[in-house]
Amino acid sequence: MYFVARRHRLIPLIELLLAAITISTLVYLIYRHSCESFLMAKHHYDVYDEELSHRELLVDNIVAFGTADSAHLPSHAATLHREYQIPQTKVNYLSEFRNLDKCPVSSEDVAAIGEAAPCYHKNTLLESLSSGGRIGLDSPYHSKSCGMWWYGTHELCNVLAKYSKVMFVGDDVLEDIFGGMMLLIREDAMYGAVRQWHYNSIEDMKCSCETAFRNHGLCESALVRSLKELTDYDITLLKCPRAGVQMQMHYLPRYPLDPVEVNRFVMAATKDSDFDRRPIAVIYGHGHGSLFDKGATASWISTLRDMIHNAIPYDVPIYELFVTPGATGPQVSGFNTLTLGLKASQVFESAMRDWGRDVQMDVLGTWNATVQTSFSADGLHGGVQTNLLKAMMVLNWLDLVNNGSG
After folding, report:
1. Angle formed by the axes of helices 172-186 and 153-160, to 10°?
2. What tens digit of pLDDT does each residue of 67-79 get?
């Protein structure tokens, strides 16, 4: 009886001891697994950081080398920075630009950058940018799926160095996009789009910041039309003066085309170039000059396109992009709403995108990017933010189209 009673007392103790051993074993196994997972993750991120550092170093070397001798720049150089990481904080990529106190603008207000992985293929880029939009009036622009990359100045210089010529040809809308490109290249928010060294009156001084883009009647003669104008005056105005690219803006808004203007454009396309076999890029812009007539604009582009292809040696690649005018605003009224109103501009863009697919020309739609803005009441002249956005879109296309992607 004593033995049985003692046995009954020992059984709970033994069960408790076994339970304690089991729990300890489980805790140990969990701890060991956690340590191993941490070490593996640490090794993964160490390898990733080492690879990223190597890529960043390579890009720096390419920048230093490419700006000195752009003809030897690898065709994929500008895409080496594309290691996407979810941004921890918002960044104003324009923070180092001059005159921000007089012309405040932030890349955060222009577009939502970094919320989606960047586009790696030209066709998906154009579709995503053309189909993006804004969440509220004057809110930052969002691409539809993959994101737009915001190029720092060194990256921008690398993109341009892949080309011997980048020619903009078109109307006021494209002229403003070229001004946005000049603002980025000069890193000057106030005077980036204009030749301010020619100013000699109070009226001239008004041609800066927003006014340079919005008031072409006043500022037309002050706008920068080529990189050569800047280098001839002061090469230090450019942040990449030795990128080895010719950039030109040719103002040809009328349809039918003026033969004198066309000949001048074709001469500029072939002048001062030894055709070092780097590609040529041509960006077209038209619509208001044809009253949003698809057939007229298509004929306008086709005429210029044929002349360019006949003038450029056959073995020099030519990349071409048509940028649509965008959405018109509330100043368009009366009879003009039928030909130049909001619906007319939307129908025109859709028709031109279809036309581009038929003739194998890239088309960048900007209607969605401009419809919810108050920057442009007539849909013709946007402000600094609108044209920085469009210029950055064009830079993304310039990078990917000359990288063997499609």
Report:
1. 120
2. 333 333 334 444 5
Cβ distance 324 to 393 under 8 Å? no
* CB-neighbour burial class of residue 144 (10 A; exposed 0-12, middle 13-18, buried 19+): middle
- Letter for the amino acid at 47? V
Q: Please tell me the pTM assigned to this model.
A: 0.80
Residue 350 clears pLDDT 80, i.e. is over it: yes
The confidence score (pLDDT) of residue 403 equals: 80
Give pLDDT, residue 57: 34
Separation between Cα atoms, residue 345 and residue 333, nearest integer Å: 14
The one-letter amino acid at 387: N
What's the rounded mean pLDDT across residues 359-374? Answer: 94
Contacts of residues 46-52 at CB distance under 8 Å and 24 or more positions apart, as own/partner, are 52/83
Residues 95 and 50: their CA atoms lie apart, in Å, by: 28
Beta bridge partners of 282: 167, 320
Task: Transcribe 311-373 into DSSP letters.
Answer: HS-TTS-EEEEEE------TT--TTHHHHHSHHHHHHHHHHHHHHHHHHT-EEE--HHHHTT-
Long-range own/partner contacts, residues 346-352 (CB < 8 A, 24 or more apart): 347/292, 348/287, 348/292, 348/294, 348/297, 348/324, 349/324, 349/325, 351/294, 352/287, 352/294, 352/297, 352/298, 352/322, 352/324
Comparing CA positions, the residue from 267, 178, 185 lying closest to residue 224 is: 178
Q: What is the rounded distance in angstroms from the CA atom of residue 202 to the CA atom of residue 205?
A: 5
In terms of Cβ atoms closer than 10 Å to its own Cβ (0-12, 13-18, 19+), residue 133 is middle
pLDDT of 227: 92
What tokens does 272 get? 């001062």
What is the C-alpha separation between 51 and 44, in angstroms, rounded? 11
3-state DSSP assignment of residue 93: coil
The DSSP call for residue 17 is: H
Query: Mind giving me the DSSP string for 238-264?
Result: -SSTTS--EEEEEE---SSPPHHHHHH
- 107-401 adopts what CATH topology? Rossmann fold (3.40.50)
Higher pLDDT, residue 90 or 74: 90
